[in-house]
Amino acid sequence: MSRDPSITLAREVPILEGIGLRKHFGGTRRLIGRSSPTVQAVNDVSLSVRRGETLALVGESGSGKSTLGRLLVNLLSPTAGDVFYEGRNLGNLPPARLNQIRRELQIIFQDPFSSLNPRMSVEAIVGEPIWLHGQQNRRERQERVVELLRTVGLAPELASRYPHEFSGGQRQRIGIARALASGPKLILGDEPVSALDVSVQAQVVNLLEDLKTRFELTLVIVAHGLSVIRHMSDRVAVMYLGEIVELAPVDDLFDAPLHPYTQALMAAVPVSHPSQRRPRTLLGGDMPSPTAPPSGCRFHTRCPHARALCREVAPAFEEVGGARRVACHFWQEIANAGGDRLLAPAPMPALRKRLHLFNSHSN
Ligand SMILES: Nc1ncnc2c1ncn2[C@@H]1O[C@H](COP(=O)(O)OP(=O)(O)OP(=O)(O)O)[C@@H](O)[C@H]1O
Ligand code: SF4
Ligand SMILES: [Mg+2]
């Protein structure tokens, strides 16, 4: 029997897709004094999130992870570019439909203490989205809260207590219960475990993984640390100064990081055995300000492999086989050299074309 092609097509539509996303903050003109500089928090990022996957966004502080995550779940509107949810452009939807979609895109925060209203009981915190959803019957709402608390591993008797009466891990569970109360399809976890004790982190990661399977969720996880990412994600997008510099399935990224910035992040991950040690890539200096990003490749001021071309021409975010993409003029030579030495450029057609462009540009 032949398959209905529309079913295949529907399955292939990513749950979320950002195209050409930019988010610039500030840049306002003042009548008196200097105008504030524009912060290029996210700069021309295109990224899709596949249904059912866990996609991680990693990078140093200030690289734009939270801003990109918030753009994707419509908590921020882009300066330019579009976000598509299940194929629909969120920028063109009527407010009622957008509100409905917002319920399907939930967020859990790094610090559950500041994200939970201290004056509301757990019952009110978790029950509020259910009430907003239209469930006016108090008894039914309470039953749903009890069910959600059990789902996240909290005793229902705790429903009358307030956030300050809980530990960090318990508060994060309350935040997760509140997110689940809206019946989400996708959850953005913005550093969901980094404020927790190491012993509690694994419990919350395991809970998120269980919930993902049970409720068929898609997860986008923002994280500094690569260890959490390795454990729980399917694909990883590495961000530097507002741009994605490498996107790869998690095992490929850990086995052979291609971008010098990813290599530097990996070199900082502790390994359990000396044989697993990677060549050291030194990451000198601080990340430049996103108000005045470097020309060409934004990483050139810190990259040990940078050459003249890098200062002038921004590398394309090119597909490099399989499901991988990388933004580096010299990724192949760096990979050939084992990541820590740069060999003379191989006669690659793509590189020759870029060098030609660069030479004609500099003349
Ligand atoms: N509302 C805002 N107004 C002005 N600048 C902002 C705003 N939000 C973020 N930024 C700036 O945008 C850049 C990216 O910030 P963002 O919070 O997305 O980074 P991040 O990768 O999540 O960092 P962290 O790991 O510290 O949370 C930073 O330079 C930040 O100061
Ligand atoms: S393009 Fe140049 S500066 Fe940028 S990462 Fe590659 S080698 Fe380094
Ligand atoms: Mg952040």
TrEMBL record:
> Does ATP-binding show up as a keyword for this record?
yes
List keywords of the entry alphabetically: ATP-binding, Nucleotide-binding, Transport
Q: Does the keyword Transport apply?
A: yes
Spell out the family assignment given in the record's similarity comment.
Belongs to the ABC transporter superfamily.
Sorted alphabetically, which SMART domains does this protein's record hold? Answer: AAA (SM00382)
Biological process terms from the Gene Ontology for this record are:
peptide transport; transmembrane transport
Give the NCBIfam families listed for this entry.
oligo_HPY (TIGR01727)
Source organism superkingdom: Bacteria
Mind telling me what this protein is named? Answer: ABC-type dipeptide transporter
Pfam families in UniProt: ABC_tran, oligo_HPY
Where do the ABC transporter domain residues begin and end? 16-266
Assembly, in brief, is:
The complex is composed of two ATP-binding proteins (DppD and DppF), two transmembrane proteins (DppB and DppC) and a solute-binding protein (DppA1-A5). Five orthologous SBPs (DppA1-A5) are present in P.aeruginosa, which increases the substrate specificity of the DppBCDF transporter.
Q: Which organism is it from?
A: Pseudomonas matsuisoli
What's the stated role of this polypeptide? Part of the ABC transporter DppABCDF involved in the uptake of various di/tripeptides. Is also involved in the uptake of phaseolotoxin, a toxic tripeptide inhibiting the enzyme ornithine carbamoyltransferase. Responsible for energy coupling to the transport system.
**EC number assigned by the record:** 7.4.2.9
> A Gene Ontology MF term for this entry?
ATP hydrolysis activity
Recorded catalytic reaction(s): these are:
a dipeptide(out) + ATP + H2O = a dipeptide(in) + ADP + phosphate + H(+)
